[in-house]
Amino acid sequence: MVAKIITSAAIGINSFKVEVEVDVASQAFPGISIVGLPDNAVSEAKERVHSAIKNSGFSFPLGKIIINLAPADIRKEGSQFDLPIAIGILKENGIEIPDDLTTAYLGELSLDGSIRPVAGVLPLISGLKDCGIKSVFVPEENAKEAALVQGVDVYGAKHLSDIVQHYNGENTLPKTIIDINKYLEENSQIDYTFDFKDVKGQQKAKKALEIAAAGGHNILMSGSPGSGKTMMAKCLASILPPLELQEALELTKIYSISGLLQKDNPLMTKRPYRPVHHTASQNGIIGGGSNPKPGEITLAHRGVLFLDEMVEFPRQVLEVLRQPLEDGEVVISRAKNSIRYPSKFMLVGAMNPCPCGFLGDKEKDCTCSEFQIQRYRSKLSGPLLDRIDIVVKVPRLTTEELINTKSDSEPSSVIRQRVINARKIQANRYKEEGIFTNSELNSKQIKKYCKLDDQTAAFLKTAAQKYQLSGRKYDRILKLSRTIADLSESNDIKLEHVTLALQFRTEI
Predict the structure, then answer these.
(1) Of 234, 7, 27, 217, which is closest to residue 106 (Cα–Cα)?
(2) Sequence spans of domains, the chain
(3) Mind listing the pLDDT tens digit for each residue in 6-22?
(4) At what angle do helices 454-467 and 495-503 cross, to 10 degrees?
């Protein structure tokens, strides 16, 4: 009789059910054969499983063991197949394990039978739940993460023998239960190293960052060296609103599949802030590889991707950001399949206005030629700039601002509360649309939620003609105006909101 055990495999941040079939041919020459398109990690499982079963005190069946991972036409990757393979072999060898196809198993085995944690548990179990799985056995270290999936009974096991004893009634494993909403609420308050109260001057840039945080807009800061661009970008993390539950679960799936989830924190409770150095490769930012993994734009999902010295990045690296910025996802295509990763991030860029950095500076003369300035700025293409909602100049601090020791700047906590209030307005407005922020509005939704009165519409039409606004840039000004109105707690977009939006959309 063939033993059938249920487990799961991942494709991107999604997963599919895998049926592990185990058959023992007692009359054949002893050995283990794994079929069903396994990768190297899965093929090596036979050695780990053999030692784990023997060192756990169980006998290993004599004869040819054939293991099939169905469906056989999809490649299986990862070490989570060790445990279900071992359970199937034990079942074939007479160990009392129920014939229950609503129970699944995930885990890597050590040679002594210990069960080691694996990556991607949350998306794996989310997929299993959709397939009707009612209970799952996972490594003890992954139990809290697995318990984030409501409606599935989760049992954390340290050792292979723990599962056998659980079924024998000798040592029943407890269910792991976690209150997601309570956990998210208790861990959402985080102290930040950088605070806007420590930033001197730069009121316009601070306001621009507040608007960007409130609506999830992309922003580019241009200014002389030492004007505070990098510090303000770091402070931006301190005014971002807490994650909604749906956002937290989506982000946790990404970090789980990437193996970056912390052991003590099964749920992501803080929006990511991902600073990227200009030497980063295209695959490092977009994602990919022979076994595709999420890149920086996906790790920054629902948070911030910060590109310091943005024009120092290779142009081809910057250009690949265009499609994710527009669509909110990135598609990594390979010969056998395509993987979609979410990438709804805030792009925050910082740059100098010219190679020497002092173009337009009031105290130091620029030494660059017109050709050098043009070549420097040409690294940012027109289509990429079209996708940036806010462009703000950050001037050098005056001597009075620089030596001022009084802390008269607004603290991040005050700014953050305004951002949270604006986000709540957006969440209520778009609860039927499946989006969270104004920056996610599509053309149809812009017409619905960004209506203008006749006077404001006429003013924006004149501005569009004067500045030769593209269709994309025009839509982004409307979305930016909607965010400014939300910060003012105004139901309607007024003339002053559009005027301010246009001030923040000047060219570099």
Answers:
(1) 7
(2) 3-178, 196-432, 441-508
(3) 999 998 888 999 999 99
(4) 20
